[in-house]
Amino acid sequence: MSNERGATPGGTTHHLVPATPETVHWGYFSRSLKPVLSVHSGDLVTIETLTHHAYDDHERMIAGDRGAEAVFLWTRDKKNVDRRGAGPLDASIHGRGAGEGFGVHICTGPIFVEGAEPGDVLEVRILDVKPRGSANPAFSGLAFGSNAAAWWGFHYNDLLTEPKPREVITIYEIDASGERNWARAVYHYRWVPQIDPFGVVHKTIDYPGVPVDHSLVTENHGILKGIRVPVRPHFGVIALAPKEAEFVDTIPPGYFGGNIDDWRIGKGAVMYYPVVVPGGLFSVGDPHASQGDSELCGTAIECSLTGTFQLIVHKRDTLAGTPLAGLDYPLLETGDEWVLHGFSFANYLAELGDKAQSEIFAKSSLDGAMRDAFRKMRRFLMTTRGLSEDEAISLMSVAVDFGVTQVVDGNWGVHAILKKALFDERK
Amino acid sequence: MSNERGATPGGTTHHLVPATPETVHWGYFSRSLKPVLSVHSGDLVTIETLTHHAYDDHERMIAGDRGAEAVFLWTRDKKNVDRRGAGPLDASIHGRGAGEGFGVHICTGPIFVEGAEPGDVLEVRILDVKPRGSANPAFSGLAFGSNAAAWWGFHYNDLLTEPKPREVITIYEIDASGERNWARAVYHYRWVPQIDPFGVVHKTIDYPGVPVDHSLVTENHGILKGIRVPVRPHFGVIALAPKEAEFVDTIPPGYFGGNIDDWRIGKGAVMYYPVVVPGGLFSVGDPHASQGDSELCGTAIECSLTGTFQLIVHKRDTLAGTPLAGLDYPLLETGDEWVLHGFSFANYLAELGDKAQSEIFAKSSLDGAMRDAFRKMRRFLMTTRGLSEDEAISLMSVAVDFGVTQVVDGNWGVHAILKKALFDERK
Asked: Is B42 in contact with B310 (CB distance < 8 Å)?
């Protein structure tokens, strides 16, 4: 689908969406959100995204950064972005805070795409991804990210060493210029109870953006010595608004995209999403400097990034006979591959009923995600390549690679990778 | 562990083990098998392996091939290799045939490695892998493999099109010289009931090596047109003998290796296995021309191969401080990576009790395999790199990739890939 049209042809409008308290929504998707911008199909948009883990190290990731300071501002008297999550504003379930942290990602948007209607497909070309450098002069030229080994991680109830359980924050450093292609660990600390500005005690990492008081934690420097983590900048969350509920937790991914957490969704990648609400309502967040397949401990290197995207509407009646025919899930195209995303439940919001948003966390399974990825790849091969079911199944067994996308987002993920070179039809 | 010692230093003995009825055991591992060869640590061994699917196309994969003809010989009066599987010789459970097909792979060996004792580690260097060309002059220069979409496949009870269910054999062709690096499909056919030479009817593919009567099946040619499957020659099964039972089904992999079905176990790879019986009792089988991660439909391109291996014993008291310290599972090293193999049950033979060999098929799960792969990688990083648990867990989340090895072998597999470049300690 990546035709040869240039990324910045004459006449294309290039928008900028900075991250401010007014341009972000925190921890939820909603079909009812007022768009922060309206664009035409083909327009370019540069979008600032902030990691919701920036307050794990205020000095490195917030201090001096006007946008980040404003979004994270939270004093006894003022909390610039109050709702954080899809839960109740009065925090009547757990008392964690507005929105209850049922959803954690700071998302920039939504952007209304003119002409995008239910049944259409939105193509999202990721033209560029840049780290957001530290605004603190002490860290000039560097960017930072936080990796939280948290209570929702796959490891949490399966630790070897004391104290058990525990949460650990590791701060990583990367080169803000992007020239150095690896990250290194700077230090780590154990989470200890933090009292937020409104007086709520957070014994665990149960609410996003809680200011971490570094006088209470012990920083251990000199960790992971000599180890270079390859940088794979990407967006954990790219979503269109789902239609099933008014407020949707950003954590479980689904047919609408969201928190897929596939590190392949970086510069040069093209994503395709089914549009289910007018204008699509496109949002981006959860920026990552790097992640391994599985995102084992619950997070990646959570690092603010700025991306440049081109948004292109494919109308419903143009899809037949293309790889987008019948698309009802998030599809990734890279130069060499098609990557299909399966989940424990393809559409948990519809499949799990009224309690879907809590039930999904009790029903996480790679087995279901493998099943979904298999079915999607079979359909893709049959629909877009005209293979019979028997041809598709044989080809999947001998040439398609299935991998673990993530085991930490409720609706666990398995992706299936189809190499385009299989179809190089040299006779 | 790959030191610089040449593969063929002076003084090293190079053995050849052809595949004959006398040098293979079919469908089972056993600590009690008489070795077909005894070698010294460091010796080279060229080993012929036969795919147990060769009779899916006798003309292309058996005819004219003395070794294959002898191993597969089965007439009303004579069955050269009677036992096929770990089941009873009198087939008193299902009546399928001797060994009941509880285990299907033709394994060449076992080879006794002098000086290998319980507690040691056997290093297996795969120096070369070559396809076994068709011996039929009509197919000169070609080699063939069979892909069976079978009743044990992940897809089998989840088919879209009629007739349901069904089994389908697809025959693939590769270049026997190895110059062309892709396979293509030749034709496929649906399995129809086959009567074996002893008169047993096989409605499904329930016993290995049943002669397929091509007058009963319909060959569909011209399938998967123009599609080139990248060749990844490798051995699905490399095993040392397990100690827990007298006869062990070759299908579920485990701590002893066996049917791991990881396509990375090909030329240039180095495998490490814990030795648990005297001499190790090394066997190789289940040769594959190619496979995708998951081996979705139940098989790869099952294609006879000949491998050249170097076998090196690492004594128990030399392991401390090396990547082999405490090794109790099959570990893969390539030039760039360490690949650790997790299973639904790390040692199903010990964990599942007396009925382990049947229970394991009822307890297949990727979730368990992911858990096992996580634990193994954590231990590997802590033991061999001296990382703390917190360092190991963070690194796994940001830099280790977990993938689906197979979902068809009872004891399902997830592998974890650790890039050696992480540890390039340039300061």
From this structure: yes
H-run or E-run covering A69: helix A66-72
ipTM above 0.90, yes or no: yes
* Average pLDDT taken over every residue of chain A: 96
User: What pLDDT, in 10s, does the model give residues B208-243?
Assistant: 999 999 999 999 999 999 999 999 999 999 999 999
C-alpha A361/C-alpha B146 separation (Å) is: 41
* Interface contact B371-A158, CB threshold 8 A: yes
The residues in B 123-152 lying below 8 A from A, measured between CB atoms, are 147, 149
Which residues, 6+ apart, have CB-to-CB distance to A344 below 8 Å? A360, A363, A364, A365, A366, A368, A369, A372, A411, A412
Q: What is the pLDDT of residue A190?
A: 98
Interface of A with B in 145-184 (CB under 8 A): 147, 149, 153-155, 158-161, 168, 170, 172, 183
pLDDT digits (tens, 9 = 90+) for A126-181: 999 999 999 999 999 999 999 999 999 999 999 999 999 999 999 999 999 988 99
User: CA-CA distance, B40 to B366, in Å (whole number)?
Assistant: 38
Chain A within 8 Å of B7 (Cβ-Cβ)?
Answer: no
Q: What is the pTM of this model?
A: 0.96
